[in-house]
Specification:
Number of domains: 4
Radius of gyration: 35 Å
Largest sheet: 6 strands, antiparallel, barrel
Oligomer: single chain
Distance between the termini: 81 Å
Structural class: alpha+beta
Strand order of the largest sheet: 8-17-22-19-18-23
C-alpha cells in the first residue's frame, strides 16, 4: 500500500495557534459563532461553531487527525470533512494565524502564499484616485474625551437627540419651501470650496463618533486618517473594527450608526442657526452643512449597498455576516453556470441558507457599484478643465484590461477551468445577443426634453425691490381684481434714504432762495441744478418705495404656497411671491437641450406625447412655439436639481440684465423673443442653469381623464419621431462628451 506523504504530513502535524490570537463568542440568528481576532495586526475573521472548535485544538500537541476526530465526535452532522479541515488549515496559514515553526508544510505554504501576493497585479490608477493618508493612532485622544462625550450614546443622550430632531423638524416645517429653494446655492460652483471644507469637518466629526462609541464599549481605535477620492473629495476614516468582537449586536449597530448619529445632531444645530440668521455667507454655510450632514450622509453612509455604516448595520440586523462577499460569490456562480456551462458547480452554501437575501443583495450591490464607478469616472473627467478625462480613460482601460486578463486566464485554465466545448458557444451567443440589442433596438432620444404643466393664463408676481414682508392681505384661492393690494413690504434703508433726500432738497431750496435774495446769480443757478438732481433722485426713490406695495396685475385667483409664513421674511429682487391665475386652462412649458433643437425643429409633426412622473398614461399636445435663442434662465422651479428635477444650477458669473429681469417679473411688451414667455424668468441674480437651454410652449390636446396639477413634470417624445439605433446613440453620446472635454483641455492649455 503506497503512502501519500503530503496527506501524511498534514494529518500528523501539530500546529499551534498564535498566542496573540483571541476568539470572541457571538450569535447570529440564534446560532453560535466566533470572531477570530489577530491582536498584532488588528484583523478580525468570522468563523462558525464547528470551525472554532477545530481551531481550538491547535495547541502544538494535537495532530490534525486528532482534531478532526474530536470535531466529528462533538459536532455530529456539522463536523468538518478532511477536505474542509485542510482548507481551514490553509486559510490559517495564509492569514498567518499559526506559529511559524509548527510544521514544514506550513512554512512552505506560507512561502508560496507570499510569492502569490507578490505576483498579484497592482492598479496604480486606483491607488492614485483613492489616495490614503494615515494620521496615526487616536486611541489615547479619544479615550481622554470618552468621559466628556461618551454619555451621548447612553439612554439620556438618545432621548436628548430625539427631542432635538423633533424640535428641529417642527421649526423647519413652515420654512420648508424656503429651505428647498436655497438648496441650489449649495451645488453652485462658487461655493464648492466652502462646501468641501464643511464636508471635511463633518466627516472628521463623523469618524470621531465611530471612535468614541467604540471606546465607550471597551474597544481600541488604533488608526485614523484621510482618503482622497478623485483628488478632491476628502473621506476621513477611523479603524473601529474592534467593535466586531462585541458580543452584543446592538452595541455593534450603535458603533456603526454613531457617525450618522453625530452628523444628524450637528445638522439640527446648523439648521436652527440657518433659521435665525440673515442671508449671507454664514447663512449659506449653515445651509450647506445641513445638506452635507443629511442628504450626502444618507446617500452614502446609510446606503447598505456600499460597505459603509449602513452595510454593517444591515449585517447585524439580518444576522448574515459577510453578506457582500456572499452575494458576489453567488453572482460568480451564476455567471459560471450560465455563460461558461459549469453546470456541475454547486451553489454556494450561503445562497442555499439565505435564498432571497444573498442573491438579491448581490444583484443590487453589483448594479450600484457600476453606477458609482460611472459617477466617479464622470467626476474625474471634469477635473482640471477636462484634462482629467485622460485619467478617467486610463482607469477604465486598466480596469477592463485587468478583468479581461483574469477572465481569459480562468477560461483557458487547465484542469479546474471550464470546458471550452461548453463555454465558447455560450460566450459567442451572449456576444451576438448584445450586438443584436445594440444594432436592432431603437430608442427615441427626444426623451431628454422636459415638460412641466402650467396654467396658460398665469401671471407670476415677483418682488420688484428688496424688502421685508410686513403684511400679507390675501390667502390661497382668494379672488382678486386688478389693482387690489396683495401684500406690503418695507425697506428701512430705502425709507431712510428717501427722508434724507427730502431733507437735502429742503435745505437746497433754502440755500437757493438765500442766494437769490443776495443776488448771487452763479451760486443760485448752481443750486437750482442741485435741486433738479435731488428732485429726480427723490422721484426715483418714491417710485422704488411705491413698488413695496404689491398689487394684482389682473383679475383672477391667488395661487401661492404658505403665504402667511411670508410675514417677517426678506425678499430679494426677482423672488417669486405668488401668482394670479385668470383661467383654468393648462398648457405645457417645454425645455430642450441646445444640441437637440435642430432635430426638434426638423420634425414633420409638432405633436408630442408627455409622460408625467408618477403617472401611467401619456398626455398628447402640440408644440406651438420654440424660442429662437437659448437662455440660462430656469424654466420652472420644479425642474431645478435643488427641487428634485434634472437641471443643474450654478452661480451666475455676470449680473442679470435688467431687461431679462423685467421679463422674469412678467412685465409688459419687450423687444425680445422672451417676451412670449413671461413665466420663464425664474432667473434670480446669481442663480442660473449650468447649461443654456431652449424653451417653448405646447398646447394640450388630449389629457384623457387625468386631472393635471400645476408643477407636475415629465419627459416628452415626438409622436412621429424617427427612432435611432441604441448602439449608434450611445456611440454619439460618448464621443460627443469626450470631444467636449478634449476641447476644454486644449482651451485651458492654450
Amino acid at each position: 500500500m503506497s503512502v501519500d506523504h503530503r496527506i501524511s504530513e498534514i494529518s500528523t502535524s501539530r500546529p499551534r495557534l498564535r498566542r496573540d490570537v483571541r476568539t470572541h463568542y457571538q450569535e447570529y440568528r440564534g446560532e453560535p459563532s466566533y470572531i477570530v481576532e489577530d491582536t498584532s495586526k488588528g484583523k478580525f475573521f468570522h468563523v462558525g461553531f464547528p470551525e472554532h472548535q477545530f481551531i481550538q485544538c491547535f495547541d502544538g500537541r494535537t495532530t490534525i487527525s486528532q482534531a478532526l476526530a474530536r470535531n466529528a465526535a462533538t459536532q455530529g452532522e456539522e463536523a468538518l470533512t478532511e477536505q474542509q479541515g485542510d482548507q481551514l488549515l490553509r486559510w490559517l496559514v495564509d492569514n498567518d494565524l499559526l506559529e511559524s515553526d509548527t510544521s514544514g508544510q506550513g512554512e512552505r505554504r506560507m512561502e508560496q502564499w507570499s510569492k502569490q501576493q507578490d505576483k498579484k497585479p497592482k492598479n496604480p490608477i486606483s491607488k492614485v484616485m483613492f489616495f490614503k493618508v494615515p494620521l496615526g493612532c487616536p486611541d489615547r485622544f479619544i479615550g481622554s474625551t470618552k468621559h466628556l462625550f461618551g454619555w451621548i450614546f447612553a439612554v439620556p443622550g438618545l432621548l436628548m437627540w430625539l427631542a432635538l430632531v423633533l424640535y428641529t423638524c417642527f421649526q423647519l416645517a413652515p420654512h420648508w419651501d424656503q429651505f428647498v429653494k436655497a438648496t441650489g446655492q449649495v451645488i453652485a460652483p462658487g461655493n464648492w470650496i466652502r462646501v468641501i471644507l464643511i464636508y471635511t469637518v463633518l466627516k472628521v466629526l463623523h469618524e470621531y463618533g465611530h471612535g468614541l462609541a467604540t471606546k465607550r464599549y471597551g474597544g481600541a481605535v488604533p488608526e485614523w486618517g484621510v482618503q482622497l477620492l478623485a483628488f478632491v473629495t476628502p473621506l476621513a476614516f477611523v479603524d473601529a473594527s474592534a467593535s466586531w468582537k462585541f458580543p452584543s449586536k446592538w452595541k455593534r449597530i450603535i458603533v456603526s450608526a454613531a457617525g450618522m448619529y453625530v452628523e444628524v445632531a450637528i445638522a439640527c444645530f446648523c439648521l436652527l442657526g440657518w433659521l435665525h440668521t440673515d442671508p449671507g455667507v454664514l447663512n449659506t454655510s449653515l445651509h450647506s452643512a445641513v445638506i452635507a450632514a443629511t442628504f450626502v450622509t444618507l446617500l452614502f453612509n446609510a446606503n447598505p449597498l456600499m460597505r459603509f455604516d449602513g452595510y454593517y448595520i444591515l449585517l447585524d440586523a439580518l444576522g448574515i455576516p459577510n453578506l457582500g462577499t456572499k452575494g458576489q460569490q453567488f453572482l460568480i456562480w451564476v455567471g459560471k453556470r450560465v455563460f461558461l456551462g459549469m453546470e456541475d458547480l454547486p451553489m454556494p452554501i450561503a445562497a442555499r441558507q439565505h435564498p432571497v437575501a444573498v442573491p438579491l443583495y448581490g444583484v443590487l450591490a453589483a448594479i450600484w457599484k457600476i453606477l458609482i464607478w460611472i459617477g466617479i469616472m464622470i467626476i474625474v473627467s471634469l477635473l482640471f478643465k477636462g484634462a482629467g478625462l485622460f485619467l478617467a480613460l486610463a482607469s477604465v482601460a486598466v480596469m477592463v484590461g485587468a478583468t479581461a486578463v483574469k477572465f481569459f486566464k480562468f477560461l483557458f485554465k487547465s484542469g479546474s477551468g471550464p470546458k471550452l466545448s461548453r463555454a465558447l458557444p455560450r460566450l459567442g451567443i451572449t456576444v451576438l445577443l448584445l450586438l443584436g440589442v445594440f444594432w436592432f433596438a431603437r430608442i427615441n432620444p427626444t426623451g431628454k426634453a422636459l415638460a412641466v404643466v402650467e396654467y396658460a393664463e398665469r401671471e407670476v408676481i415677483r418682488a420688484g425691490v428688496r424688502g421685508k414682508v410686513t403684511e400679507v392681505l390675501v390667502e390661497q384661492d382668494d379672488l382678486v381684481k386688478k389693482g387690489d393690494l396683495l401684500l406690503k413690504l418695507s425697506n428701512p434703508d430705502e425709507e431712510a434714504e428717501r427722508d434724507k433726500l427730502v431733507l437735502e432738497l429742503r435745505t437746497a431750496r433754502i440755500r437757493a432762495r438765500s442766494y437769490y435774495q443776495q443776488e448771487n446769480l452763479p451760486a443760485h443757478q448752481a443750486e437750482l441744478e442741485t435741486i433738479t438732481g435731488l428732485e429726480r433722485k427723490l422721484e426715483e426713490s418714491r417710485q422704488y418705495l411705491a413698488s413695496l406695495e404689491v398689487v394684482a396685475p389682473k383679475d383672477g385667483v391667488v395661487a401661492g404656497r404658505q403665504l402667511k409664513t411670508l410675514e417677517g421674511q426678506w425678499l430679494n429682487t426677482g423672488d417669486e411671491i405668488l401668482s394670479v391665475i385668470a383661467g383654468d386652462e393648462r398648457e405645457l412649458l417645454v425645455s430642450f437641450r441646445q444640441e437637440d433643437v435642430e432635430s426638434v425643429i426638423s420634425q414633420k409633426s409638432p405633436a408630442i406625447k408627455v409622460r408625467l412622473r408618477g403617472r401611467s398614461k401619456t398626455i398628447e399636445a402640440v408644440i406651438e412655439r420654440i424660442e429662437s435663442r437659448a437662455t440660462r434662465a430656469l424654466p420652472h422651479e420644479v425642474m431645478s436639481a435643488s427641487s428634485g428635477g434634472p437641471l443643474a444650477l450654478r452661480t451666475s458669473s455676470d449680473p442679470v440684465a435688467e431687461r431679462e429681469r423685467d421679463i422674469a417679473r412678467g412685465g409688459g411688451e419687450y423687444d425680445s423673443d422672451l417676451d412670449y414667455f413671461s413665466g420663464l424668468g425664474d432667473r434670480q441674480p446669481g442663480r442660473e442653469l449650468a447649461r443654456a437651454r431652449f424653451a417653448g410652449r405646447a398646447k394640450i390636446t388630449d389629457a384623457g381623464d387625468q386631472e393635471l396639477r400645476e408643477g407636475e413634470w415629465g419627459y416628452l417624445r415626438f409622436a412621429n419621431a424617427e427612432k435611432e439605433r441604441l448602439g449608434k446613440w450611445l456611440y454619439n453620446e460618448v464621443s460627443t462628451y469626450v470631444k467636449e472635454k478634449i476641447q476644454q483641455a486644449r482651451a485651458a492649455a492654450s
